[in-house]
Amino acid sequence: MGWGCDLTWIDKRKVVCMQGMKAGALFGTALAGILASSVPAWAQTAGSPTDEARVKGAGTSAGGAAPMAADIFAPLAYPQPENAYRAGSGLPGPAYWQNRADYSIAARIDPATHVLSGSETITYTNNSPDTLDVLWIQLDQNIYRPDSRAASAAHESHGSHPGMTSVHTDGVVIEHAAVDGAAVTPLVSDTRMQLRLARPLPPKGRVAVRISWHYTVPGTWGGRTAVSDTKNGPIYEIAQWYPRMEVYDDRRGWNTLPYLGQEFFLDYGDFDYSVEVPWNYTVAGSGALTNPNDVLTAAERARLAQAGRSETRVMIRTPADVTDPHSHAASSGTKTWHFHMANTRDVSFAASPAFVWDAAHIDLPDESPGPGRPKQPRLAMSVYPVEGIGAHGWDRSTTYVKHAIEYFSSMWFVYPWPNAINLGGYGAGMEYPGIVFDGWSDRDPELFWITTHELGHGWFPMIVGTDERRRAWMDEGFNTFIDAYASDHFNHGEFAPKQDSEFAPKTGVPADDIVPILTDANAPTLMTPADLVSERYRHSVTYFKSAYGLKLLREQILGPDRFDAAFRRYIAVWAFKHPGPSDFFRIMESEGGEDLSWFWRGWYFRNWSPNYAIAGTSYVDGDPSHGLVVHVENRGSLPLPVVLRREFSDGTHADTRIPTETWMRQKTATLTFPGGPKVTRVRLDPDHVIPDVDRADNDAEVGVH
Ligand SMILES: [Zn+2]
User: Region (Disordered): which ranges (predicted)?
Assistant: First the structure.
């Protein structure tokens, strides 16, 4: 990218380009020098934070007069104060704690009735400084009850629940609940269940919760979890399937927002789970299969071993196997598949007699499938019905899986789990740790983009455990951000640029495609709680605007070197923990080395936008050899760095980068360039890398006002 050259101050209204400055210095000493000479006194001392509610021009900048510079650049008061649990640096504080939930689950599917039944033991560890007198547990399947809160809110709910107003289940039936062996009567409220503890759970205490339950698996109208028919039998996509602990944390105690269709917030722990299915079913699940000798044939096990040495896919179950009853390890009754996954917030699985199954090696160090078991090669895998087969379809799925896991591992944080599986189901487009649910009918770029996106959720929120229910932009947007680069990286850009409903949907140029959102007075801000964001804005704000914010931060504000180091630090220190927005804002400032109050305020707390204009040009003394003067006006509310290009009469051009600090005390900057060749035009943001909301005034013929 053309970084151009930076500016230095002559006086408060005049800047000149320092020719020959290296691009690498743009974000280092050069900017530090500008800051030292230009930052107002209030920004250099720790003044009292500005109350966001009092900042003028709080709405979209399109709706009226732009806010004043003092409001744009005022120190930002973060929603979460720093304390012993969460440090001002954005790191977990010295007293940070997090509770832990380990699960042992045995489940069974009855295909005749579509009933899934199970029993589980949750070993819950209280690492908080508080004594707990109740436990709160999530009963997500109650979202399908006719009297659920989500059923009433469905018209403004997640788009994959269109049937929620007309088709229902009875939700989850709790057959029995006990704490440390003593039966308790659960108190169920919508998608939550409270268990009152006969003996309060003290700090560092541990309790065993035993629950038995069953529910009817919804049809495809279930959205994220469903059973659907294919030519060779049903596919069960099983998620949000067992009673799961709510998160108790330092910010608000129990996190008990009901499940209205947004996503999830979960603690970490180790999972052992088993699934009993008919003899001819194959189960693909989160983590690693721990009893292959019981459920796989010798041929299937040999093929898996071969896949562990192969960079290209090896068929574990072929299309011919799917219709061959002798291709299974049993010929009647049921089989029970055991899985283990360590240090994860959730597990899911898919089961079907219709699965074609292929796998290839993931180029990461071997991983143990469970405690005391030797390390094994890690596998990228795909399971799908024969309907998904095709050179443009699922024949390439495992290649996409392998690329996503290896690429994201090399860029951001090494994938911590044994396997990664892509399921070709009816098309939920949903992410779970170690397994994602996609559509067998997806082809070419759609299959690549959805596979990469859902697996990218392995990093956000499966590794960095944010609260999806409140802050969907912290997983959907952050994931979409890393996905855009994955599209550029795969197979020499075969599917680049990423251009789908989640990112730059109209032209593939995010600076242009985001403008309708920035100028929409009704658009929610990124900080709007996820339950309040209507379907109309879910992709454009939660995914696209959030992802593009990080792209602006990386490419236009910090530069890749500083951004990547800071973002990797954010991921590393918050891996398997629960960061909030304030933690993220703080660590990117501290590690990135900039006061970003103006950017967080404008892009995340408001829908503010940049809008620069050429206000006038002239030659000094009317003579190009004496110098060129360009007046640039800031009419916007998000003062992103902007490039000014001078186009010379000989067809060449030169770029000058105008930094953010230019606009701290002035609305119009006067740039004077040394004399030289005749300049025919000047252009602001010539490459469309910032979302200037009015480009009509961005370029001008020199000397024409
Ligand atoms: Zn997503």
Answer: 148-167
